[in-house]
Amino acid sequence: MVNSFILKVLPVIKYKKSPNIMNSFVKFIFIFLLISCGDDGPNCPGDMVLPVEISPYNPYYNVGDTITFSSIIHKLIYDKKTDKFYDASNYSFGPIISVFSLDSINRYGFKSQVNLYCDFIRQDDFRVFVDTLENKTFIGGDYLLEKDSLGILFKLKLEKSGFYWISTDSWTTGDSYLQNNHRFNCRGRYIDFYLQSPKENNIQFMQKFRNIYPNDYYLSDSISRFYNRAGYCFEVR
Q1: Full-prediction pTM beyond 0.70?
Q2: Where are the domains of the chain?
Q3: What is the pLDDT of residue 2?
Q4: Are 124 and 131 in contact (CB under 8 A)?
C-alpha cells in the first residue's frame, strides 16, 4: 500500500524544482511510515525492566554445585509512563538465558553453551527448556501464571571449571505481535532485565579477561550489554 502510494506521487514531484516541496514530501512519507508501524503516544505503555535472582550467591563455586535462577513478578505490572497497571497474564516476555565462558577461546567462539558448562535441571511447574540454534545452546521458554504471579525458575548444576557469566535477554523485545499487545495499536515494548539479587554481579571477572573477545565488546557498553541483561559472573573451581 505504501509503495503504490509513493509510485503514484513521485511522477508529480519529479517535475517540481523547489527543494521545499521535496523536503516536505520526505517528511510526510517519514511520518506516514512511522504511524503505520505503531504508535508511542501518551496512551501507549513504556518499556519494561524485569527482576532476576540467582542463589545462592558465591563468587566461587565448586564443580557439582547447583545454582537457582528465578524471576517472579506480579501479573499486574505498573507502567510509569502511563501511570497505569497492565494485566500481563497473556503477555509473552520471551526470556533467553545464556551461559558464556569468560576465559577460554574454543571452537564455539563466544556463543552460549549451556549444555557444555552445566546440567540443566528443569522444574516441572515452569515452562523453561534448553534449546539449540546455530551451534549455541540457551535456556528459553516463558513466564508461567500461578494465581497472581508470573514467574520462571530453573536450576543449573555446574559441570566444568572455569570463569563464566549468565546473561538474560528477551526474544520478543520491541515486537508488539510477539508480545500479544498489538491490539492496542502501540509499538512493541523493549524488555530489559536487572539483577535484583545478589547485589554483587562480579563484573571484575569479565574485566580480568578483557583481552579475550568478546569480553571487551561487552565492557565497552556495559550498561546495555551487561547490566541491562542482569549480567552475573562467577568462577567454578
Answers
A1: yes
A2: 2-36, 48-236
A3: 37
A4: no
